[in-house]
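note to self: dont lose this again. the chain is below, predicted strucutre after it. 109 aa total, dont forget to put it in the shared folder this time
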Amino acid sequence: MSTLTECIEGRRSIRNFKEEKVKDDGILAILESATFAPSAINKQPWYFIVIKDEALKKQMANVVGAKLKEVLSMIEKDDETGMLINYSKFFTFFEEAPVVIAVLCRPIT
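---
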């Protein structure tokens, strides 16, 4: 159990990435582990897309940034909006990651 506790307590968000490639076997191990996540009635409605292409990551970040601006323009301006604007840089920092794993989900019917 101490390994599990260490893993949970040692978890952190990384926002500055090294300039080294991620090995495919490491990505595969992450994806295999992700398939063990719990889901309602074990439907496992997710699928994963591994993105390494720099141009595609940039395009994704541009789309997210544009949608964020659109959302911010529709909400009432207050202190929480200011806080959201300050945190908005965290919405697109994935562009600098060597690999992005997009998690998509099928609708449960």
